[in-house]
Amino acid sequence: MATLKLPSTVPSPSEDCEQLRKAFAGWGTNEDLIIQILAHRNGAQRKKIQETYSETYGEDLLKDLDSELSSDFQRAVLLWTLEPAERDAYLVNEATKKLTASNWVIMEVACTRSSDQLLCARKAYHAKYKKSLEEDIAHHTSGDFRKLLVPLVSAFRYEGDEVNMSLAKSEAKTFHQKICDKAYNDDEVIRILATRSKPQLNATFNHYNDQFGNAITKDLKADPEDEYLKLLRSIIKCLTVPEKYYEKVLRLAINKLGTDEKALTRVVVTRAEVDLQRIAEEYQRRNSVPLERAVAGDTSGDYEKMLLALMGHGDA
Amino acid sequence: MATLKLPSTVPSPSEDCEQLRKAFAGWGTNEDLIIQILAHRNGAQRKKIQETYSETYGEDLLKDLDSELSSDFQRAVLLWTLEPAERDAYLVNEATKKLTASNWVIMEVACTRSSDQLLCARKAYHAKYKKSLEEDIAHHTSGDFRKLLVPLVSAFRYEGDEVNMSLAKSEAKTFHQKICDKAYNDDEVIRILATRSKPQLNATFNHYNDQFGNAITKDLKADPEDEYLKLLRSIIKCLTVPEKYYEKVLRLAINKLGTDEKALTRVVVTRAEVDLQRIAEEYQRRNSVPLERAVAGDTSGDYEKMLLALMGHGDA
Q1: I need a surface site. Which of A63, A187, B98, B304 has the fewest CB within 10 A?
Q2: Backbone angle region of A219, left / alpha / beta, with phi > 0 → left and psi within -120 to 50 → alpha
């Protein structure tokens, strides 16, 4: 349930490149034209446009966008234009830098992508940064956060639907025991979260709920302000109900005193081709306001136009 | 420096299948013919033979080999015939079972394969066992061994040659500090071993040697019988000088009172297409006996013939 809207007839990559070139030409930039093109092309099409642009003009589209645009609009267009795997590599790299460090972004990429998507991000990381994604994360995180994040990004989970119910029961019990002992960073807890398939974990958490009377995320709220526990709860949500996790990220980003544009942009560009429709439904249910309206109320100018276009607003 | 020898003209897969079928026919089995064919075909050719066999006869070549052959010879032929990725998946799965548990086999697969080969083994594991390789390893190992093995099998190391010398220096110092503190299972030690590229680790260990006067493997010999320290030393050897690691496995397998056929078979079948030539050179240097002669002296019959064929003995 993507929100991305494609035109009924998609122009050829060379036509798109020609139009983009026009948008950059002369004094000033035609932002509307850029949005009209890029915000209505899927990943494969954007890749083709990038390739054609470089073949035709001997220049890098991303660099040209970078020099033509600015601030939040620039970041949204650049992140959107990147291939999903390259974008994930970029976001994770940024999340390991001191000033932009974020365990949340790393966790999102680790837990909401498919096994193959996560792997492609790791490959893109090699290609771009000449290092492995996990070595940078391991190097730049520490303590319990490292213990949790490194196995999560290194996972290559089984993606079949088979669920082993007796395993689900025994691992639900393990979770319950560890939570009772407040052993939240226990090796077993991390092993299960970082290696089991998503359907298997879902069965385990359902069993936990049935057997012990609370959702596991509720039992992980001993100290609501504890950052490690927050991350654990988010991991569980990302692995089983990612739309709920993302709804909350959007809610907090929008309700903040001064919008959190980085988070808003990240969710819109990474989910527009995936499940932004479901996230928007969840948002409306939880906030009684359509997501589009909330975003429009909190942003302005080209940035607003770009986000709304990606959210499926208006014609392609 | 593989030892595998291919005939100058390789018969077509259908011809090979026909011959194999003949080798199975009637009373008794023609083992020589089986060796003559399978021990002189590379991975891609063996795969094609398996496919053609199943298309032509509606039967599984591996199952037929399994029912026609027995004991050590059977295991060698079966393991050899499997695709490398499927073979690795099989070996690791076996290594997680109670009666055949082996941290060594898991470590070998994790540390001597390329990033892509290890990944293919993880994919083959999904396909065959409907689970992830790392979840089985995590589930069936414990304590420090788990802490070490799970990140090793989950690694997707960068494979370029770039080395960061200042990082090598600082991480050599980290190793030295942890070894002085006898903190062999420290998170930092495991992080570095499990995430850095092989050239980077090589630089780190060289720097360790230059700076602190001993090879790191020597400093990790505080208690020569400690299983965890043994594994650590083997990891370092596998990551930097795999031929030396394998030479020792062969030496111990052959010198044992009663040969360790499982280890012998494993090394020959997994390395014949990779670096068995280098391993054999290392063996001769260390033992003053050619590897072929040592193997011939310790094995017999079809099993001996199969191993020698894979080691490049005689004509293809």
Answers
A1: B98
A2: alpha
For residue range B71-102, what is the model confidence (pLDDT) as tens digits?
999 999 999 999 999 999 999 999 999 889 99
Contact between A126 and B191 using a beta-carbon 8 Å cutoff: no
Helix/strand/coil (H, E, C) string of B46-96? HHHHHHHHHHHHCCCHHHHHHHHCCHHHHHHHHHHHCCHHHHHHHHHHHHC
| pLDDT score for A256 | 82
Q: Of B123, B146, B156, which is closest to A122 when you measure between CB atoms?
A: B156
Question: Which residues in chain B are contacts of A144 at CB distance < 8 A?
Answer: none
Quote the CA–CA distance of B229 and B287 in Å, as a whole number.
25
State the fold for domain B13-69: Annexin V; domain 1 (1.10.220)
Task: List chain A domain ranges.
Answer: 13-69, 85-154, 165-240, 242-310
Q: Which residues of A245-276 are buried (b: 16+ CB within 10 A; e: fewer)?
A: bbbbbbbebbeeeebbbbbbbbbbbbbbbbbb
| CATH 3.40.50.620 correct for A242-310 | no
Which residue on chain A is closest to B128 by alpha carbon? A158
In chain A, what percentage of residues exceed pLDDT 90?
Answer: 92
CB A61 within 8 A of CB A26: no
If you search the block for the tokens 């906030």, which residue do you land on? A287
Residue A130: which of B131, B154, B158 has the nearest Cβ?
A: B158
- The dihedral built from the CA positions of residue A25, A31, A33 and A36, taken in this order, carries a sign that is positive
Which residue type sits at A89?
A
Q: Which two tokens stand for residue A222?
A: 């001993």
The arithmetic mean of pLDDT across residues B104-112, rounded, is 98
pLDDT the model gives residue A1: 83
Q: Bin A226: left if φ > 0, else alpha if -120 < ψ < 50, else beta.
A: beta
Tell me: the pLDDT tens digits for A84-135? 999 999 999 999 998 899 999 999 999 999 999 999 999 999 999 999 999 9
What residue spans of A141-260 are helical by DSSP H? 143-154, 165-180, 187-195, 198-212, 216-219, 227-240, 242-255
The domain made up of A165-240 has a fold known as Annexin V; domain 1 (1.10.220)
Angle, nearest 10°, between helix axes B187-195 and B227-240?
A: 30
- Chain B residues touching A195 at Cβ < 8 A: 132, 134-135, 138-139, 150
Q: Which of A144, A153, A158, A171 to mutate to test binding with chain B, by most B CBs within 10 Å of its CB?
A: A158
**Gap between the Cα atoms of B57 and B216, Å rounded:** 55
Q: Which one of 3.40.190.10, 1.10.760.10, 1.10.220.10, 1.10.10.10 gives the CATH number of domain B84-154?
A: 1.10.220.10
* More confidently predicted of B99 and B233: B233
Look up tokens 């062999």; give the residue: B184
**Does A85-154 match A13-69 at the fold level?**
yes
Q: Which residue is listed with tokens 């359907």?
A: A199
Backbone dihedral region for residue B6 (phi beyond 0: left; psi -120 to 50: alpha; all else: beta)? beta
Whole-prediction pTM value? Answer: 0.86
What gap in Å lies between CA B42 and CA B11, rounded to an integer?
Answer: 12
- At the second CATH level, the architecture of A85-154 is Orthogonal Bundle (1.10)
